[in-house]
């Protein structure tokens, strides 16, 4: 059914670290909400969120998936988001579409991992209200109190338990609602029956409710005054305080249950509707007027001009491209024409769809707050703003994530290179953290991503979706060659084979230039010993010779070449002859000028927790790195270092291992530096072997 009231919309992001059971929770929500008739499972591929084969095989969510349900006359769109660090960038961007979050927590102490911390930090940046749900309470050694304590200490949240479990592990059989002081026990149909609090738990429940009242009273001055006067709050007042405190991000209500046994999921949905905001309750969306570049705002209301943010793209080789957007203001109908403000082009919207896993449900229109998709927009990409062309607004785009690992890809079948490149470019529309470039020097296609697993999954999708198989290998390090000394040499070509011959004679001087200068050619000919018309051919011959040095056949850089003498023949000299002679002379001169090998050195910033800093710095030293300095960062230290590229081609998994996944880094080219003598021989042998293999 179409939605016509912004206040009834909830866009619920289901977030948390990998393996905690987010997809399972979403599937049970859909079942209890009546959207599905059976509870789907990720492990057998029956999840209603439509998992890809790669997700089923690995038992993890790789990309945000969508579905929706109706609960107490509210339209709840579920966003099932990845939790593993390799795929968390998708989560951090798709959170832009959520109006609230359910943060799924494992039921034990010390289980909140760095991925969860990153998502929590992003939620703080977006000021997103959230609930926490301690799941798997039927698991062995489940400890609700320990999980609540971790939410307080690790995530820094003002955690407010509004439920406590009845039993734990195998004995878990329901929850006590501290707001209503009722025991909620599951019925066979998945709903919950209200009963009196068990007598043996009454004292603990009373104490927990006292703590609840004390915590929520602080959310509202009037309620705090009443609580201080009377020492009690009514059920309605507690609910009011929870509503105010949660939406203002002052409180994080904590609930608990079990997805596998479908215990206490309906009360969680009740809390979503009661305590998390609708789009109408959120702050106005701030953007920029595209021509004047002045800040403007749009209210999340239907009487505002239409505007929307495209936050995700889904690409299917058969169905085409789906652009998923959240309407931030106004209303849009199917078959409308809108302006892509980011690219200043008009786009024709066809059918609008509500996403239901891999399926879609057509809807006639979408209003402020709704998440819908549209097919086959020609110019639109993730991060773009769509708006009424008469009232344009440009919203901030999505986060950009630098690549931390790259591989060269090689198609297994000849002739598939172009097919692979085109397919990967389509995949980058769906996953902006993938980057495909072509290394013209090494003649390689380079695939870059967040991690090795991220890239391996992309390669699997390439085979399944586009029928192209590739192998992964480490990309070649772009070494360079230069000289340390000065030398002079003659380059002469003399050929006579009957008729017109070939003759050119050049004298060249080579000398080093400062690092990063490149190449400089100097014409020092006097007296016309080399005619003017042949000088460009000499320079061209030298420039072509720069492409292949004499140490390990890498390009030559930072060299000055001077043509200072020569001779010619009036009949046999030609541009080609002088080009060849100059190339021969240049190579001879370089071989006599102390040629050396250069390697690229990368500028890195590695952000690590304080307790890992010593290990990381020691590892950098072992990689021939030079630590430039250490700067404080929230929760850790940022190490600035220069490290040879050859030593950090696979740095991401090593850093993850050293920091238990809590470290991150950025990397960029800085300069070229001489390769140590003891490593040059190894590089030369590898280059010769590669050259022989191609021959």
Q: Give, in spatial order, the strands making up the sheet with the most strands.
A: 18-17-23-14-15-22-19-20
Low-confidence stretches: none
Report the radius of gyration as a whole number of Å: 33 Å
CATH architecture call of the largest domain: 3-Layer(aba) Sandwich
Percentage of residues in DSSP E strands: 25-35%
Describe, in short, the structure shown:
The protein has 695 residues and is α+β, with helices and mostly antiparallel strands.
Description:
It is a single chain. This protein has 695 residues and is of the alpha+beta class. The protein has five domains: 6-175 and 251-281, P-loop containing nucleotide triphosphate hydrolases (Rossmann fold, 3-Layer(aba) Sandwich), CATH 3.40.50; 290-387, Elongation Factor Tu (Ef-tu), domain 3, CATH 2.40.30.10; 405-473, Elongation Factor G (Translational Gtpase), domain 3 (Alpha-Beta Plaits); 480-593, Ribosomal Protein S5, domain 2 (2-Layer Sandwich); 599-679, Alpha-Beta Plaits. It contains 16 helices and 36 strands. The strands form eight sheets. The chain has an eight-stranded antiparallel β-sheet. Strands 2-3-1-4-5-11-6 form a seven-stranded mixed β-sheet, sandwiched between helices. It is elongated. The mean pLDDT is 92.
């Amino acid at each position: 059914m179409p939605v016509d009231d912004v206040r009834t919309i909830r866009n619920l992001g289901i977030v948390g670290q990998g393996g905690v059971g987010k997809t399972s929770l979403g599937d049970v929500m859909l079942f209890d909400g009546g959207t599905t008739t059976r509870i789907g499972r990720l492990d057998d591929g029956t999840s209603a969120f439509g998992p890809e084969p790669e997700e089923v095989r690995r038992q993890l969510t790789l990309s945000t998936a969508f579905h929706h349900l109706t609960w107490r006359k509210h339209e709840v769109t579920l966003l099932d988001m990845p939790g593993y660090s390799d795929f968390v960038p998708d989560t951090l961007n798709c959170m832009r579409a959520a109006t609230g979050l359910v943060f799924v927590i494992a039921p034990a102490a010390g289980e909140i991992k760095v991925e969860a911390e990153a998502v929590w930090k992003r939620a703080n940046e977006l000021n997103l209200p959230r609930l926490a749900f301690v799941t798997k309470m039927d698991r062995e050694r489940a400890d609700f109190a320990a999980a609540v304590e971790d939410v307080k200490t690790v995530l820094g949240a003002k955690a407010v338990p509004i439920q406590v479990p009845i039993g734990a592990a195998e004995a878990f059989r329901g929850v006590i609602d501290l707001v209503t002081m009722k025991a909620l026990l599951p019925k066979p149909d998945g709903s919950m029956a209200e009963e009196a609090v068990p007598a043996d738990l009454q004292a603990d429940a009373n104490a927990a409710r006292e703590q609840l009242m004390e915590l929520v009273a602080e959310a509202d001055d009037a309620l705090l005054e009443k609580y201080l006067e009377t020492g009690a709050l009514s059920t309605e007042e507690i609910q009011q305080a929870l509503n105010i405190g949660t939406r203002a991000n002052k409180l994080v209500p904590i609930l608990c249950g079990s997805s596998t046994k479908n215990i206490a999921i309906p009360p969680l949905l009740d809390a979503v509707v009661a305590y998390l905001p609708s789009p109408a309750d959120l702050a106005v969306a701030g953007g920029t007027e595209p021509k004047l570049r002045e800040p403007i705002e749009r209210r999340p209301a239907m009487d505002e001009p239409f505007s929307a943010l495209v936050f995700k793209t889904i690409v299917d080789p058969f169905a085409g491209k789906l652009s998923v957007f959240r309407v931030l203001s106004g209303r849009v109908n199917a078959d409308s024409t809108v302006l892509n403000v980011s690219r200043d082009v008009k786009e024709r919207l066809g059918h609008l769809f509500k996403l239901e896993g891999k399926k879609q449900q057509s809807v006639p229109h979408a209003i402020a707050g709704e998440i819908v998709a549209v097919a086959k927009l020609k110019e639109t990409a993730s991060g773009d703003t769509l708006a009424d062309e008469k009232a344009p607004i440009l919203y901030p785009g999505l986060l950009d994530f630098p690549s931390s690992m790259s591989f060269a890809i090689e198609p297994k079948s000849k002739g598939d290179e172009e097919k692979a490149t085109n397919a990967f470019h389509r995949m980058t529309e769906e996953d902006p953290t993938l980057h495909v470039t072509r290394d013209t020097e090494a003649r390689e296609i380079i695939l870059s991503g967040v991690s090795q697993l991220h890239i391996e999954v992309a390669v699997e999708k390439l085979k399944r979706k586009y029928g192209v198989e590739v192998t992964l290998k480490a990309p070649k390090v772009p070494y360079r060659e230069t000289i340390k000394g000065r030398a002079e040499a003659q380059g002469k070509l003399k050929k006579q084979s009957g008729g017109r011959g070939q003759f050119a004679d050049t004298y060249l001087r080579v000398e080093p230039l400062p690092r990063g200068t490149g190449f400089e050619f100097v014409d020092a000919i006097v007296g016309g010993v080399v005619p003017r018309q042949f000088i460009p051919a000499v320079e061209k011959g030298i420039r072509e010779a720069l492409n292949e040095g004499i140490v390990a056949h890498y390009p030559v850089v930072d060299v000055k070449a001077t043509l200072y003498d020569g001779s010619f023949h009036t009949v046999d000299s030609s541009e080609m002859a002088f080009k060849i002679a100059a190339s021969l002379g240049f190579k001879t001169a370089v071989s006599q000028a102390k040629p050396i090998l250069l390697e690229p050195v990368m500028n890195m910033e590695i952000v690590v927790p304080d307790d890992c800093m010593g290990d990381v710095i020691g590892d950098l030293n072992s990689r021939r790195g030079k630590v430039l300095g250490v700067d404080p960062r929230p929760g850790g230290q940022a190490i600035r270092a220069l490290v040879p590229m050859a030593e950090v081609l696979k740095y991401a998994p090593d850093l993850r291992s050293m920091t238990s996944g809590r470290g991150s880094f950025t990397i960029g080219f800085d300069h070229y530096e001489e390769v140590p003598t003891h490593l040059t021989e190894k590089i030369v042998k590898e280059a010769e072997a590669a050259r022989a293999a191609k021959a």
